[in-house]
Each structure stands twice: as structure tokens, then as C-alpha cells.
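Closing statement on the 1Q0 sub-project.
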Amino acid sequence: MKNCKQHEFQIGRMVEAFRYCMTEKKDILLEEYLIAWRQLIKFMDALGTVFTFISSETMTKVNILQGYLNGEHGKDYRTVTSMVKYELENEVVNFKELPPNRVPSGCRTLLRLHRALKFLEVFLYNLGMSVGKDKTSQMCADAYHKTLSHHHSWFIRQVAEVAFLALPPIEDMYKVVCVSNHKDAKIVLLTTVDAIVKVYNITQEVYTKHGMLDLP
Ligand code: 1Q0
């Protein structure tokens, strides 16, 4: 695994993006939200080839949303609320099944990232609160079992379990966030968790209001 000088992942940039994506009106700016996700993809890419499948799956979701943002109706995709409004009014969202041969809606795509954000929150919390002997693979598996795994098929769950085993030890993870001791890491990680919780809650509220937490 590359260290903080060589690879490009910046946890500071990620936290900044998660903070900047929140507006005063308790909405989420999609462009900034995607910047945070691109940072996470860089992190996964730095972990090695075992994580390529997960990182490219994440990239696919990010690209779908970026495509809508850059598209004809880009303005309607500026925030989560405006996206939901536009897609519901124009019957872009499918509540029953994913229609074949069509780009998935922004709403169902964002929902996948939103669910993964809960996993990330719990994983980073586990890392921040860990004591010396805890294993990253165990902390990651624990976060996954509590969150994202509920939304994954048996096959994907097996893929995830294999990936967890390839996670580097905690000291190496600290190097990636450019800290050398547990105390500093705890501050960075829990600050990140704080930003993620806020972003998660805002999105969750919008999706709950529109009954969109189970989009296929
Ligand atoms: C670094 C640890 C990574 C561990 C990742 C565990 C996640 C699990 C497995 C994901 C498998 C993805 C394969 C495909 C899944 C799709 O079926 C699913 C649903 O989409 P769809 O279109 O089929 O309905 N897609 C998803 O659920 C999206 C999954 C995105 C996973 C994103 C994980 C993000 C994690 C990042 C970890 C970064 C940690 C940073 C730590 C920094 C501090 C030291």
C-alpha cells in the first residue's frame, strides 16, 4: 500500500467536500458530494487490486450521477432535493423494477452511495475508537454486517468478505491519512464521522419523505 506522500487520497479534502456539500437549507450539493466519493475511490485504489471491483462499482455510480449533472437537465441535479423533485415529476424513478436498457435514475443511484455512506460512517467510527489490538478486517466486517450487507446479495457479500481480509493493518491505514499515532488518527476519523453523519441524515430525511428508501 502506498503511503500518504505517494498516493493522492486526502482525507482533509474528503471531509471538506462532505462539509461543503451541505447547504443552509439542509440540502446536499451533488457536485461536492461526488468530489468526496472520488476521494474515497482514490483510497480504495491505493489499497490494491482486490479492491478494484469495489472501487469501479463505486465509480460507475459516481459517473451516472455526474452524467446527469453534466447533461441537458443538469440544473435539476444541483441538489438532492431538486433531483428528487425533477425525477419524480418526470417519472424517471421506477419504484417497481429497474427497466432494462436504460440509465438508472439519479435517485436509485444516489441511494446506493447513501447506503454505503452508513457503512463508511460505522467503519471509520470503529477505526477511530479502536484500541491497539483490533484488526482492521474485523472492524470493517463488523461495520459491513451492521449496515450495507443487508442490501447485498449472497454473491456480493462473499466478495466483500474476501476484500476485508486484504485490508492492511491499522498502522498502514493511519499512514494513508497522514497521521502516525492513534490519538491524531482518532481526531481525524471522528471529525470525518461527524461530517458524514450530518450528510447521511439530510439525505435520509429526503428519501424517507418520498418513500424512496427501497428503490430497486
Ligand atoms: C476500504 C474498505 C473497503 C471495504 C468495502 C466494503 C464494501 C463492500 C462491498 C461492495 C461490493 C460492491 C459490489 C457491487 C455492489 C452492488 O450490487 C451494489 C448495489 O448496486 P446495484 O446497482 O447492484 O443495485 N452497490 C453498492 O452497494 C455500492 C457499493 C459501494 C461500496 C463503497 C465502499 C466505500 C468504502 C470506502 C472505504 C474507505 C475507507 C477510508 C478509510 C480512510 C481512513 C483510514
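The chain has one domain: 11-105+116-209. With this model delivered, the sub-project is considered complete and its resources will be redirected to Aim 3.
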